[in-house]
Design goal:
- The chain has 320 residues and is mostly helical.
- The chain contains 14 helices and no strands.
- The N and C termini lie far apart (50 Å).
Length: 320
Amino acid sequence: MRDNDSATATVAIAVNAPAAAGQAIPTAAAPARGTLASRGALLAALGVAAFSLTFPATAWALEGMGPWTVVMLRSVLAAVLAGGALAVFRVRLPERRHWAGIAVVAGGVVLGFPLLTTLALQTSTTSHAAVVVGLLPLTTAAYSAVRTGARPSRTFWVASMAGAAVVIGFAVQQSGGAPGRGDLLLFAALLVCAAGYAEGGRLARHLPGWQVIGWALVLALPVTVAGAAVALSTEPLRLTAHAIGGVLWLATGSTFLGMVAWYRGMAAIGIHKASQLQLAQPLLTLVWSVLLLGERLPPAAPAAALAVLACIAVTQRSRG
């Protein structure tokens, strides 16, 4: 017994000594954490890139469809895609404790945000709407702090508020200082979407991101199918190439694939830091508005871009 004990002790010393000296184990763990964070940031960035095309795609869809038709069709098509994936991979139903969060995702991301922003785009340009929705990172971080008890650092909040101030200043300058009905709809969209993003990011720690948005789409399917039937029977329909392409992108890119990447990214790097990457979304949308819709780029956009990117850099380096 003493020989065995001595052998065990010798092995323990041989294994633990390098860890105490800061050699083998820490160097192996650090790259793994760094790789996970880099992958999460990349996924969140891909989600932001997909979302930046949402408003231009919505403007295209509105060229041939009514707002309710656009919202309901995009959700139904995305639900078919998501439901098919859930069926093919034989995914089990989520646990009962997750359904409340999935319902919030459905209400905020699948129904609330698309509907409110689509209605707003009837009176607002895509560039103006994109800048107002630039406040989404701050509202998402605030909701997450209340919901999860997270406490980001003071530097994080200062940088977030600075980014929000840039966005608000830009929006006020573009609108002439007189927010209208479209702005009110966009501000309401911020609140419901922030809840959906934060709940989805929290759920993505327990379920794969594509399953979170997939089940939310399926849960909303009875409402969206009924809504699509009513909208198609009451709103005018003109199937142009722009209208079809816009709805297809909204369903596949903005509503499903973009959300898959976004939720996985939030699960990897945290809701607060991932949400700040969205400060770049309005700037990307401005570019798409020029390239795809022919809108004139506001003169203040370059300065706003530099300021927002600086805020993103600070928030990504700050520790919560």
